[in-house]
Amino acid sequence: xxxxxxxxPASAGAGFTLTELIIALFVMIEVIIxxxxxxxxxxxxxxxxxxxxxxxxxxxxxxxxLVRNTRMAGRGGLPARGTFGNAxxxxxxxxxxxxVNNASDDLGILTGPASASNPKLLPGTDxxxxxxxFSGVIYQLNSADSAAFEKSDENGDxxxxxxxxxxxxxxxxxxxxxxxxxxxxxxxxxxxxIVTSPLDDAMFxxxxxxxxxxxxxxxxxxxxxxxxxxxxxxxxxGTHTAAxxxxxxxxxxxxxxxxxPDAMETAAFVGVLEEYRFYIREEYATPGDNTTELSPxxxxxxxxxxxxxxxxxxxxxxxxxxxxxxxxxxALAVDANKDGALTETAAASDTDEWLFxxxxxxxxxxxxxxxxxxxxxxxxxxxxxxxDRRDRNYQAPLIGTLEDHGYTTPPxxxxxSPQNRMYRHRxxxxxxxLRNL
Length: 437
Prior knowledge:
- The protein has helices at 18-71, 177-184, 241-247, 366-369, 413-416, and strands spanning 83-85, 90-93, 97-101, 127-132, 139-140, 160-165, 192-196, 204-209, 215-217, 226-232, 269-281, 297-303, 319-323, 325-334, 354-355, 376-386, 401-402, 405-406, 425-433.
- By secondary structure, it is an alpha+beta fold.
- It has 2 domains: 51-124 and 285-299 and 325-433, no CATH class; 142-267, no CATH class.
- Strands 1, 2, 3, 4, 5, 6, 7, 8, 9, 10, 11, 12 and 13 form a 13-stranded antiparallel beta sheet that branches. A 4-stranded antiparallel beta sheet has the order 15-14-16-19, covered by helices on one side.
């Protein structure tokens, strides 16, 4: 016979007690919390690294655009000589390079008071102006052919022409389609043409294209054999002739006197002159609402050379290059004593040949103002960028001085506001050799 089943409870080893379950639950919760904290920490680190990477990319783009255009400044024959001033703003003004130093509180990129049609510079930042043949071709002319270049008289009366052939004097093909497109465009643009003498690279003149009286040979050709450029030089005609004349550097006359070079009977090169201005545009998180957070951008404005007129469209005054760039500072290396070498000191002094690198630099000091023909060797471009978002657990080190822009006296909001110090920042500097000057 089978023995009856035991009615005793199962052994304790067959399950878990309530105490054991509670302990296991607490351990599991602690493990989950630790994993979540690790995930959160990793996520925060990833976001920070992403913001820093975006900042570095923005800084690289900013410096690339600034350096690329600065190195091309003067292409086509513009010299680097300049004049200096400090009222109402400090500035350096040369045909190829210009600098506005430490913009005042209400300055627009068109030099007048800021407005909806004149984008505002972020106060304290610099603006860099460059001129040259940037995107176009420098065409070679047949200087031995007296008919290839009709010289304007001293007063610039009447139309004159410049003839550009598809084959250069050396027999090298030249693409004339860009010139033909300017002439055949539905809307004529009063482009600036820089014309250089074969006698001296420093002998040049800037004239205004008269597209309506220019010719393409054969007419309407997509690959013309010849383009005849009509031009105006008389300040009483054309749209921007007075401004273009002021850029010219005629031998035998004072710079900007508005005369045609006396000895310029022939021409060797011609190109379309362009002007760009790089600046930090004051923008806010909500455009037009200055009660929202500041969100400045490095921008580029294109104008007709020597004017305060936007090139073709007002949109060309606010072409964005990089976000979250808070400062642009430009320092100029000028060989003030013309000894072929540069002297740099650790503080502002009469022997320091860098302008706008110290707060005490005065462009009207004799070392600068008395040497307008002193060679310009280098530009140092400095940019300050901030991350797009704050890091709540971070306080950035204080920003000291960027060239001659001090952030400590008077205290700058980026230093004094704990909220603003949560932004991570980077400073990048590039020394640019002005290869065309």
